[in-house]
Every structure is written in structure tokens, then in C-alpha cells.
Amino acid sequence: MSAAALVRADGVAVAYPGGPPVLTGVTFELREGERVAVLGPNGGGKTTLFRAVLGELRPAAGALAASARRAAVPQTERSRLDFPVSASDVALMGTIPGRPWWRRPSRADRAAARAALARVGLADRAERTYGELSGGQRQRVLIARAIVQDAGVLLLDEPFSGLDTTSAAALERLLGELAGEGRGVLIATHDLDQARGWDRVLCLNGRQLAFGDPADVLTPEVLAATYGGAIVTLPGTDPDAPRRAILPPHHHDHHHDHHHDRRGSAR
Amino acid sequence: MSAVLHALADPFSQSLMQRALAEALLLAAVGGTLGCWVVLGGLSYGAESLAHGMFPGLVAAALLGIPLLLGGAAGILLAALAVVLAGRVGRGRIGRDDAVAVAVTTLFGAGALLALAPATPVGIESLLFGDVLGTSPADLAAGAALVALVLLALRTTHWRLLAVGFDRDGARALGVAPPRVDALLLTLLALAVLVAVQGLGNLLVVAVLVAPAAAARLLTRRLGPMMALAVVLGALAGLGGLYLSYYVRVAAGASIAGLLVAVYLLARLAAAASGIRKGAAAGGG
Q1: CATH 3.40.50.300 placement within chain A
Q2: What are phi and psi of A18, to 5 degrees?
Q3: Which CATH number is associated with domain A1-68+152-165+179-267?
Q4: In sequence order, which ranges of A55-134 are alpha helices (DSSP H)?
Q5: How much is the pLDDT for B1?
């Protein structure tokens, strides 16, 4: 009675062209209706895994199969906020893979973009400039773009980073709904508490360290191996349930504001 | 009233001025549309490098008596090659821009040396500053064909250009190859420079590829209107420049380029006055 597998990885290793594998031993399944948290330090292989699942990188070893279309939902700050595009323009980019390069978007394409924006609750923001939307709204526009691609699998790269509490709650709700529609959702995150609420957790640090139910995977030992000790226990109000948080070792080319405590002060 | 109309129409009673106007409108069309991608993609320096680096090709064409378009095409290929090589050779030691600057200056200097040779025919300044009034019917036809090609390519690949400009990594995930889009844009840029250099010359060609789009960017919020406005501004500058040259007897190409820059400055003032782009201008570049 288990749901169908949308993505199945068996002993997968991924390398960049001409280089050694940067990620090895990845064996997991993403099934219909599941939200899977992908944990790991920066540079631990989350993005590499995503690129492999998207088909941009071919596995150097192992088998990686997907039975549904995959779409990426990148971090919003990766896109140019000064670009003269509307939310519906961005959603409409999701129709690019579905048509020959010389053809322009059809009426049906535009309708699909509008419907997807409505689906993520942004029908009234469709003609607003993308860069002028809030971080949470921009994230939802990018999710709409993935919906337009008719993707059964969504790969989200730290979608909660930089969101305030309200936006984060709205996004969490939306991801739950998308999973409820039978989509598989892979979410790269640093937030352990959030991961605890999802269906499965995949821990990566150059190789796969664990995959399974959150209760089995989110142990101090696994987390220590995943993050290499960059973990602190926060003094919580409830002494029986201390909150753990991750200290990102380095801030790379983009900043993450709220890894330590998403529920902390909003930007 | 009729005197005004007459004054406006009079210059274009001559076929020379009609061709000049047609050439100016072609430049406005290609400069306004492609220019938006140049401005949004930060390619202004690339456009200038191509234009200046092709100078030896233009001079060689003048020396050999072959069509400027051919010499210009060869010159652009040479310039593109030199720019790529300079970027490779200098990698890690000097900055990319510096390497390109060295390559382009070398080419431009070589062109100047050629131009100063005793065998060079007179009128070399038209290569530098253009000769929009000297547009021949053949020039016009070739220019129109190239402009049509560029416009068609821009129209068909619009969404791919948009996706890559918006977010390179995201575009890759959409199945668009950013390096291919870059190559396409540079090729179109080379074609546009090739067309525009006839009218505006080696030194002024960048004006039509950058100024109208940069001005339109300040006054619009979407790419479609931005392109349309850029074309209109470019056309107005072209028309105005021809009037100036006819009535004030100044160089046509320089007048057009000067008006293009004036249009940009006016747009800045207008944008500042209306505050239409508020903080968004900070991210431009």
C-alpha cells in the first residue's frame, strides 16, 4: 500500500565533469506525497544532489531513476531582483521546457501561469514586479514556476531562509498541500525542528550519512556526523526537549539569516 | 504652420537624406531592442570592445577597396578572438577587463597605424565617426537584412534570454544552456555593431546600443515597454541628429550620438523627478 516512488537513488555517486566524486553512497526514495528534508553543511552535497536529480549532472556511479518531471525552486536571492519582469513573467518561464525554442508562449501557457500563481495564493500579485514582492511571495512565485512545469517532484533550496514567521508558516502550509496533491518535495534546510515535522530526512556530508524517518535519523550521533560538531544545544523552555541548532561553519557566497532559529526575530 | 511643416519635410526631399533617415531608423530598431539585453546583461563594455577592436578590419577594407561590411566582419571576428585569447592568457594574473582593454587598444592602435599609412585613401575619419549621409542603397539593403535577422532572433529566443538574464542557475534547471544564450547574444551584438558602425562609426556606435535602452530602463518597469520606448527614443535622436546636421551643418553621426546621450540625461532627470524607479535603480549595472 506504499505510494509510488517518484525518485529512486541506489548507491549514487556524483562528480563534476573531470573531477572526483563530491557526493557518494546516496540511496533513498522519494515517494508520492512525501516531504523529504535534505540536511547537511554548506558544501556537503545538497546542491550537487539536486543537480543530479534534476538531470543536470549524470551519476558517476549507481542508479538514479525518476518517474516524474522534476523542477527546481532556487533561492530567491539567486535571481536578479532588479530585472524588469512581473510575477507572471517568472511563472511563464516554467513553460520554456515544454515548447520548441522558436515558439512563443501560447494563450494556454499564459493561462497555466495565471492558474499556478492563483494556486500559490498570488492571483492578485500576478502583474507586480517580481523584485518588489516580499521574500515569501517571491519564493511562492518560483514554486508557481515549478507547478507550471507540471512537475511531480519539487526541489527547494533552503526556501525558508530569510522568511519571517508568517511567510514561513504560509510556505510550510503550501508545501503540505503540494505533497497532499501527490507531489514529492525535496527540501534542503538547516532547520531540524522543521525537518522533524516532515516525512523523511536525508543527511549528507560528502556522502549519505542517514535516510529514514525523522525520529530515527535526527539523533545526536547522526547530526554530529553530518555537521561535524557544528551543533549547539539551545537552552529551551522545556528541559526535556532541548532545541538543537546548527552553526553554519562558513558563510559562502550567499547569506543565511535564520539557521540558528527560524522563529527568531524576523528581518 | 506650413512653414514649419516645410522645414521638417524639406531635408528629406533628397534621396541622400531619405537613406540616412532609413539608416537611422534601422539603428534605432536594433539598438533599442538588442540594447535592452546589452544594458540588462552588463554587456556595454563588450559592445564597446567589439566596436573598437574591429577598427583594423575597417581600415583594411578601405585600403583594399572592399565593402566595409566585409572588412568589419573580419575585424569583429579578429577582435572577438583577441578578446577571448586575452581573457585566457591573462587569467589569474591580470583581471579580465584589463586583458580585454589591452587587446582592444592594441587592435585599435594597429588600425590607426594602418590608417596613417601613405597609401590610405582620404576620409578615414568616416570610419571613426561614421558617415550616415553616405549610406548607399546597397549599404541600406545589407543593413536592413542584418537588422531583420537580429530582430527575428531576439523575438524567437526572447524567453530564453529572459530566463538566463533573470537567473542563470535557474535557467539551467529549465533546460536552457546559459553559455549558448551568451554566445547568441554576443553574435547578435557583433551583427548589430557591424550594421551600426557604417552610420555612427567606430567610436560612436556604442551610443546607439546603450543610451536609448539605458534611458528606457529608467522610465519603464517591463521589458516590452522598455524595448518599445528605447526604439522610439533612438528614432527621435536619429531624426533630430539629421535635422541638426542639415540646418546647423554639423556632422550627422556625432549629432545623433550626442542626442542619444542627451536623451539618456533627460531620462535620468525625468526618473529622478517622478521617482518611478525608487530603490530599484541601485541594483542596475
Answers
A1: 1-68+152-165+179-267
A2: 80, 0
A3: 3.40.50.300
A4: 87-92, 107-119
A5: 66
Cα distances (Å, whole numbers) of residue B10 to B4, B17, B25, B236, B243: 10, 10, 18, 17, 10
Q: What's the one-letter identity of residue B90?
A: G
d(CA A142, CA A153): 14
Does the structure show a pLDDT above 70 at B279? no
For residue B144, the 8-state DSSP code is H
CA distance B176 to A229: 39
pLDDT per residue over B166-180, tens digit each? 998 889 989 899 989
Determine the average pLDDT of the residues in B49-71.
88
Residues from chain A contacting residue B223 (CB–CB below 8 Å): 84-85, 89
Contact call for residues A13 and A26 (beta carbons, < 8 A)? yes
Q: B2-28, pLDDT tens digit by residue?
A: 888 898 999 999 999 999 999 999 999
pLDDT, block means (10 residues), chain A with 267 residues: 83 92 95 95 91 92 94 89 94 93 92 96 95 94 95 94 91 95 94 91 94 92 82 57 57 42 37
Instruction: Work out the mean pLDDT of chain B and round it to a whole number.
Output: 88
Burial class (CB in 10 A: 0-12, 13-18, 19+), B253: buried
Three-state secondary-structure class, residue A73: strand
Q: Would you place residue B238 in the very low, low, confident or very high pLDDT band (cuts 50, 70, 90)?
A: very high
Mean pLDDT value of segment B220-233? 96
The answer to whether residues B114 and B64 touch, using CB atoms and an 8 Å cutoff, is: no
CA distance A134 to B181: 29
- Cβ burial of B92 (10 Å; 0-12, 13-18, 19+) is exposed
A84–B217 C-beta distance less than 8 A: yes
Amino acid, res. B118: P
What is the SS3 assignment for B70? helix
Please name which of A70, A73, A105, A103 lies closest in space to residue A88, comparing C-alpha atoms: A105
Question: d(Cα B265, Cα B271) in Å, to the nearest integer?
Answer: 10
Cβ atoms of A252 and A157 closer than 8 Å: no
Query: In the structure grid, which three cell numbers stand for residue A89, read together?
Result: 513573467
Q: Is A206 left (phi over 0), alpha (psi -120 to 50) or beta?
A: left
Instruction: Please indicate if any CB of chain A lies within 8 Å of the CB of B237.
Output: no
Q: Could you report the predicted ipTM of this complex, rounded to two decimals? A: 0.84
Interface of A with B (CB under 8 A): 54, 56, 71-72, 74, 78-86, 89-90, 92-97, 101-102, 104-105, 129, 131-132, 142, 149
b/e per residue, B27-64, with b = 16+ CB within 10 A?
bbbbbbbbbbbbbbbebbebbbbbbbbbbbbbbbbbbe
Q: How confident is the model at residue B90 (pLDDT cuts 50, 70, 90)?
A: low
Contact at CB, A79 and B162, closer than 8 angstroms? no
Say how many CB pairs under 8 Å bridge A and B.
80
